[in-house]
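Sync notes, pocket subgroup
Present: LS, DG
LS reminded everyone that the earlier model was apo-only. Rerun requested with EPU included. Inputs:
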Amino acid sequence: MIKFTADASLRPFNTFGLDAKADLLVEYTSEDDLSQIFHDARVAGKPFLHVGQGSNLLFTGDYHGVVLHSGIRGIRPTSQGEDVVLLECGAGESWDGICAWCVDHGFYGVENLSGIPGEVGAAAVQNIGAYGVEFKDVAVAISVYDVKADKHVIVSVEECQYGYRTSLFKQPDYKQRFIVTGALLGMARKAPFMLDYGNIKAALLERGFTLLQGADRKRGDRSMRGKPITLHAMRDAILSLRDSKLPDPKVLGNAGSFFKNPVIERSRYEELLAAHPDMPKYDVDETHVKVPAGWLIEHAGCRNRSVGDACVYPQQCLVIVNRGHASADEIVQLSRLIVETVNERYAIRLEPEVNFI
Ligand code: EPU
């Protein structure tokens, strides 16, 4: 099924809830539709933008081109090995739907990525991540439609060039060329769980689970015993951690983290640490660390900053929310104010994670 809508509202396709328009919106439901769409005179040669739920987009104005939305559905186990199950997922499936499905079917690997808004296609482009796990950790291959060659291609995970919230699909040469139609995921049949991030351990202990896994649990001291962690327990813990910090875009328009956590030289971090002894970090490699942008924004004094209806979300300063009727302009102005304030205080330039369109 292919549906063309001229002069379409993009409000349903961006979680900031901004009322931008597209010259043409094309919604489709199968891989085979794409060749037909790109041969259509209304689409051929025009710039295009592929959206999912728009949970990482900021429309700074109307889009003069073609906005595409995939309704390709399906979650199919294709091969079931002793340790790994391969799962084929349509690009239009909700990402959290995949996480819930895997947890229900006893497949391990995406439980820490529970609750992230958006669809599979965007997850593959953006290399979404949370609580110590990234999309790339479970991806095996991505199926794409190559607009230029008018054919379907399989891209291996190595070829995807995944990095922190980035991939081949975001590079200028491929943005207007590859459309993700599905992802092949490799799910594990058993734990270990990834517990080393944020407050996961505390959330599990509070619920009466032991942090010991596998053989360690059997050998463990009695006092360390509790209920063994299950997939459902992990998903519930992650969902409640997210709920406590991140605003629900259905209630308060937002696009999750507005900025990336900046990666800086370790030596620079140590200088900063001398002046700000409580500055947290995540280790990246021997010479680099990642500093939480939310911490920098809060400690630079931006917690209660707003421009019109665009404001910093006080429980997690990394997020900008639309309190009601914020314009794109207000959101952009607030983001600039944050970048400048953080830069003045820490000499670190934040970069948006959100894509400005
Ligand atoms: N912090 C503050 N003030 C704040 C926010 C955070 O001091 O307003 C401190 C926290 O106390 C903590 C540290 O900063 O010490 C890190 O905060 P948190 O654990 O909340 O996570 P994050 O590093 O800010 C990243 C991802 C999130 C992901 C979480 C959990 C980025 C840009 N963001 O945030 O991803 O959910 O980790 O894993 O990497 C997203 O991409 O949209 C997103 C929400």
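DG: The two ends are 27 Å apart (CA to CA).
LS: The pocket of EPU is lined by residues 130-131, 197-198, 245-246, 256-257, 260-261, 280, 292, 294-295, 298, 316-318, 353 (CB under 6 Å).
Action: DG to write up.
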